[in-house]
Write a structure and sequence with these properties.
By secondary structure, the chain is α/β, with parallel strands linked by helices. It contains nine helices and 17 strands. Strand 2 (39-44) and strand 3 (47-49) form a beta hairpin. It is globular and about 55 Å long.
Length: 425
């Protein structure tokens, strides 16, 4: 989402000619995007790898964006990772998304102990920059001093993580296009429309492409993706980001991505990765938890992601996705106040989430997007997670390997899981 600052009956199926890769912890890996008649996929040492990702963070109740797990003692960091990565592995998650505050040693630890990769993300000035000692809340990508600073940060970024076991790919930005319109870092209604001649947007995507080239000059073994807010400026991206390997998209459209995969295929012609998507677990109308609604939306989203993977007969351009998010963020509404209150104020409107949509009213609850609820921390800052219905549903989903399945098998499995969810009203 808008990150701030800083077993059932087994069916016999025909197995296609590729299968999911498993982590190789002994040699340097070659990770790249592949393309053939079946479509696009990510491959690790030539073996297809479908991304079953999670947007993961660690913020104890009572903290906000100023808290960093990586600044805590080593035993606290390891305890937190052991608690949460075990749950993620049990769920079937094979990659997490992390910003470049995570030390390389912990990426290596997560990979070697739990077999979970990391997509490492640089926000690329999304939440402001300090230029010559002055803070600028909205980044102007046309300024030469901004461009110079960001490219230097990208150089430092790739040099820091290059060669780290467990890094899957590099991701630049986080819906920076929204930063051209929003007044601050907190979520607002999504911008509507675009101006293809917007100089600011053109500068942004030109610079993102240059950043991708800087990364590739150092590391040729990992793909480079950019992270866009939905498909805004897709035409500009196609023109200016020719050296980017993957289009990452944060998309909150409700139960369906609609024509997203088709549009990307027609205009971009390269693979797409859903870097964020999800649903909150709170009903803004009834003022009650909405676990079933959240689970149903996520199941619909993941079904479309699977069916648009290579070899599925649809667009064949989806590499996978990253659910948003693993646990609730109690600081998201207000960001600096009432940090120990699980706020139920809806902060923006989205018509795609019909279960609590009322005309003229906000319906998106920023603090309730977790597929796990969160308990209060102990004196070490560690807390317990309480998996919601969505966690349990996605655990079943992520047992499915799309590159070893037929479309009909996938549809049958999702249908069976959805029926189980509806029984749990």
């Amino acid at each position: 989402m808008k990150t701030v600052f800083l077993s059932v009956v087994a069916l016999f199926i025909t197995v296609p000619a590729f299968s999911q890769s498993m982590p190789d912890q002994t040699t340097k890996q070659e990770i790249k995007v592949m393309n053939d008649s079946r479509g696009y996929l990510l491959a690790i040492d030539g073996k297809p790898f479908f991304l079953k990702g999670m947007n993961w963070d660690y913020f104890p109740i009572g903290t906000n964006y100023t808290y960093s797990l990586w600044e805590q003692s080593e035993n606290v960091i390891q305890a937190a990772l052991d608690n949460e990565m075990s749950l993620l592995r049990k769920m079937g998650v094979n990659v997490i998304r992390q910003y470049n505050t995570i030390p390389p040693r912990w990426i290596k630890y997560i990979y070697e102990v739990y077999g979970i990769y990391t997509m490492i993300n640089h926000s690329f000035g999304r939440y402001g920059l300090t230029i010559n000692g002055t803070w600028h809340g909205n980044t102007d990508y046309c300024r030469e001093d901004v461009r110079k600073l960001l490219l230097q940060e990208v150089d430092d970024f790739v040099n820091t993580y290059h060669g780290t076991p467990g890094v899957l790919m590099y991701l630049i930005g986080n819906e920076n296009n929204y930063g051209l319109f929003w007044a601050g870092a907190e979520s607002e209604d999504l911008p509507v429309g675009e101006n293809l001649h917007d100089r600011r947007a053109r500068c942004l995507y030109e610079l993102l492409n240059e950043a991708a080239l800087r990364i590739k000059a150092v590391d040729t073994s990992h793909p480079v993706a950019i992270c866009n807010g939905d498909l805004q400026f897709l035409d500009v991206i196609a023109q200016e980001c020719k050296d980017v390997d993957v289009l990452g998209v944060n998309s909150y459209r409700g139960e369906s991505f609609d024509t997203l995969f088709k549009e990307v295929k027609e205009k971009w012609g390269k693979p797409v990765l859903l870097t964020e998507f999800g649903a909150d677990a709170f009903n803004a109308v009834t003022k009650q938890e909405a676990q079933r609604e959240q689970a149903e939306i996520l199941l619909n989203n993941w079904q479309e992601i699977y069916l648009n993977a290579a070899g599925m007969g649809r667009c064949g351009n989806c590499l996978g996705g990253f659910t948003f998010q693993f646990s609730d963020g109690w600081w998201k509404y207000g960001q600096t106040k009432n940090l120990d209150v699980h706020d139920t104020h809806a902060s923006w409107t989205n018509g795609g989430y019909k279960f609590d949509l009322v005309t003229g009213e906000n319906n998106m609850n920023e603090e309730w997007f977790g597929i796990c609820a969160k308990g209060y921390p102990n004196d070490r800052g560690l807390y317990r997670l309480y998996p919601r219905m969505a966690y349990k549903a996605l655990r079943k989903v992520q047992r499915i390997e799309p590159y070893q399945s037929s479309p009909s098998f996938i549809e049958q499995r999702f249908s069976a899981i959805k029926k189980q969810i509806r029984k749990n009203k």
